[in-house]
């Protein structure tokens, strides 16, 4: 029988991006550096990142603060809609608004999403082989973080909707032998000064 050990999955949304999303803003670069500094004491084995520039640049800036942690470009860490619910699955009072939101997402982010989401679950979640815990960081986008958090909590597949994540905030999920997966913390911005918090979040959701 193969031994299995715990996986600690660190999830970070990319830093604040320019309006055309082709690069990070100065604030986004600062956010990424500060997140990297926070993770210096974490025994990360790899930094996975999505293929879009804002995720790749964030991962590179985080990696520059660490000691030799390799970067891995990953399609499943990209920006896409992970699951397309039917109207019947959704709460009646919110169904029209949620489906209207999803209809605005470009086809290239919507159509391949479910297959990529299944790959993300296979690649990033669950126990690891061996007898040593593994710590991995995924630098990604808001939708995927919501998808992985809802999966860790065994919530319905549509429930990735409504789980928002700020730029360069940190979420950690633990998968341990003999225990249910647990979200250790979510959307943590403790490493960011006040002026760099809540970017990427709708203003009405700032707390």
The major pleated sheet works out as:
6 strands, mixed
Radius of gyration: 17 Å
Helix count, DSSP H or I runs of 4 or more residues = 6
Share of helix, binned: 25-40%
Please report the total strand number as a whole number.
Answer: 8
Order of helices and strands: EEHEHEHHHEEHEE
Unreliable segments of 5+ consecutive residues = none
Biggest sheet, strands in spatial order? 4-3-6-2-7-8
Head-to-tail CA distance between termini = 48 Å
**Alpha-beta content class:** alpha/beta
**Which of globular, elongated, flat, extended, rod-shaped describes the shape?**
globular
Mean pLDDT: 96
List the helices and strands and how they pair.
Elements (H helix, E strand, L loop, with lengths): L3 E2 L1 E7 L12 H13 L5 E6 L3 H12 L6 E3 L21 H9 L3 H4 L2 H12 L3 E2 L4 E7 L1 H11 L17 E6 L6 E7 L19
Parallel strand pairs: 2-6, 3-4, 3-6
Antiparallel strand pairs: 1-5, 2-7, 7-8
Helix pairs in contact: 1-2
Describe the structure.
The chain has 207 residues and is an alpha/beta fold. It has helices at 26-38, 53-64, 95-103, 107-110, 113-124, 142-152, and strands at residues 4-5, 7-13, 44-49, 71-73, 128-129, 134-140, 170-175, 182-188. Strand 3, helix 2 (53-64) and strand 4 form a beta-alpha-beta unit. The radius of gyration is 17 Å and the shape is globular. Helix 1 (26-38) packs across helix 2. It has a six-stranded mixed sheet with strand order 4-3-6-2-7-8, sandwiched between helices. Strands 1-5 form a two-stranded antiparallel ribbon.
């Amino acid at each position: 029988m193969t031994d299995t050990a715990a996986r600690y999955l660190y999830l970070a949304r990319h830093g604040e991006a320019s309006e055309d999303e082709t690069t990070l803003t100065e604030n986004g670069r600062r956010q990424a550096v500060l997140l990297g500094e926070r993770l210096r004491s974490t025994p990360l084995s790899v930094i996975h990142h999505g293929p879009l520039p804002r995720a790749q640049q964030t991962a590179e800036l985080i990696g520059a603060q660490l000691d030799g942690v390799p970067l891995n470009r990953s399609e499943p860490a990209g920006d896409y809609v992970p699951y397309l619910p039917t109207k019947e699955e959704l709460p009646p009072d919110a169904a029209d608004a949620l489906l209207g939101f999803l209809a605005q997402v470009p086809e290239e982010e919507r159509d391949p999403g479910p297959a990529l989401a299944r790959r993300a679950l296979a690649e990033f979640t669950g126990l690891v082989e061996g007898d040593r815990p593994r710590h991995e960081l995924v630098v990604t986008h808001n939708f995927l973080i919501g998808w992985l958090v809802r999966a860790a909590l065994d919530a319905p597949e549509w429930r990735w909707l409504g789980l928002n994540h700020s730029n360069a905030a940190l979420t950690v999920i633990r998968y341990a032998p003999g225990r249910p997966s647990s979200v250790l913390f979510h959307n943590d911005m403790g490493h960011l000064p006040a002026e760099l918090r809540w970017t990427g979040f709708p203003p009405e959701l700032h707390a």
